[in-house]
Structure formats: structure tokens, C-alpha cells
Design a protein that fits this description.
Elements lengths: L1 H6 L10 H14 L5 H20 L3 H25 L3
Protein name: Holin
Pfam families: Phage_holin_5_2 (PF16079)
Organism: Aneurinibacillus danicus
Length: 87
């Protein structure tokens, strides 16, 4: 049942704007004094899911696309950081 549900998820182009917006939000939160780093990813996931639901609708597709957009933002930031700041 879960496999069937997940196989029907499609990436929606409407979230092409959500990904960069989440990148900017993550940067702003990182620069905010006294905002814990561990909380940034959770804020991005929540905002991503809300954005997905607004853009696509309150269904599995909307929530999954929001999570995917947040994951893309977090992963691309970490890839950039690990590449630039390698020790």
C-alpha cells in the first residue's frame, strides 16, 4: 500500500520557486542571532510542507513535494558548505 501511494507522487514545477525561497529563508535564519542551528531544518521542512499544500493541495503530493523542496534546499546547502569549507 505504501509503495503504491509513493509511486503516484509527481514532482510539481510550481515548487520551483519554493526551493530558492527555502534557501533564502535558511540563510536568513542562519544569520539570525540566538536562533539555534538545529531548528533551521525543522522550520524549512514545515515551511516547505505548507508551501507544497498551498501550491498543490492538501494531499500526499502536496506534502511530499514540500518535503522534497526542503530536502533539496538543505542538501544543496550542505553540499556547497562541505565543498567550500572542506578541511
Amino acid at each position: 500500500m505504501l509503495t503504491e501511494l509513493l509511486s503516484n507522487i509527481t514532482l510539481n514545477p510550481a515548487l520551483g520557486l519554493v526551493f530558492p525561497a527555502l534557501m533564502v529563508l535558511g540563510y536568513v535564519l542562519k544569520q539570525t542571532p540566538h536562533f539555534p542551528d538545529w531548528l533551521i531544518i525543522w522550520v524549512l521542512f514545515i515551511v516547505g510542507m505548507i508551501s507544497g499544500v498551498i501550491a498543490i493541495g492538501l494531499n500526499v503530493d502536496g506534502v511530499a513535494n514540500g518535503i522534497i523542496a526542503a530536502g533539496m534546499a538543505i542538501t544543496s546547502h550542505q553540499a556547497w558548505k562541505q565543498t567550500i569549507e572542506r578541511k
